[in-house]
Amino acid sequence: MKSATKTGVLLLNLGSPEAPTASAVRTYLAALLGDPRVLEMPAPLRWLLLHGIILRTRPKFAAHAYSKIWTAEGSPLLVHTKAFVAGLAKQLGEEYVVEFAMSCGEPFIPGVVEKLLRLPLKELVIVPLYPQYASATVGSSVEAVMKALSTHRNIPQLRTVSAFFDHPDYLNAVVETSAPILESLKPDHVLFSYHGLPESQIRKGETTTGHCLSSNDSCCAEFGSKNFFCYRAQCFATTRSLVARLGLAPDAYSMSFQSRLGRTPWIQPYTEEMLVSLAKKGVRHLAVLTPSFVADCLETLEEIGIRASETFIAAGGERLDLIPALNSSESWTRAAAKIIQNR
Fold this sequence. Notes:
This protein has 343 residues and is of the alpha/beta class. 46% of the residues lie in helices and 13% in strands. Helix 5 (135-149) links the parallel strand 3 (123-128) and strand 4 (157-160). The longest helix is centred in the N-terminal third of the chain and has 27 residues, at 43-69. The protein is globular, with a radius of gyration of 20 Å.
């Protein structure tokens, strides 16, 4: 089969430092937080905040956190992504060429785009590996691909797979991987913890002025044209769908948002506060799902698996179990193949 008849698939994720060291983390954070879609403020102010405060204090702390989860093969995110690429390529078959690239780290997006366009391709499918849409993740990675493509004369037909938070195959994959574990663990309560975002980013992205964050829950109780691009509303929609598929009772689950950084308000409820609240309410055995992450990484393994567990136990809980992300499970590779092939 000639390469010109093939479809290219470019998987995108955030990336990791090259090593669990302060210097490597500093380089990684400079790239991540230097992105105007991530730190949304005037460029001079962003530079002062990043180089005057964050890069002076954060790298050492983050490097210590990375060292707790680092593997012999490298960062868990990179290890799981490589395995996922292999599994997805097998599912898609010889008509597809599958590559992955990172927004902040190796392999970088421009180099992978260059590699794919050498083939050439009849179509390039861009797949940000973030179930819920956010400008800082999906928007940023797609923008980086478009910038890389803009330097080439010959550009194949393009298609973007974005925000698959409500796709039945994604939801079923989460249930297929997590339900047997939950059945085995039999926790008192299930917490759905999503990566957080500043409230200001949610308001800037709203499609109907004054709707987003107009109340704690009711503005996200339904999903539609008023909150089509609202990350928080998509997280609530994902939770509702998973709860229904898992058959959880209304009092058997909660949801929250983690990874808050800085002093500005982020979307609520906060995971660290929810952990304390659940423990004080009498929950002794807590299971945590992280549906905004398709691969285990620092935010799942260290932030939830280690630090959140310590917080929960210190507040009176007895046990916290992190339910693994989709990673490279057959359920996920099969579901991702269907999502990509679905036009």
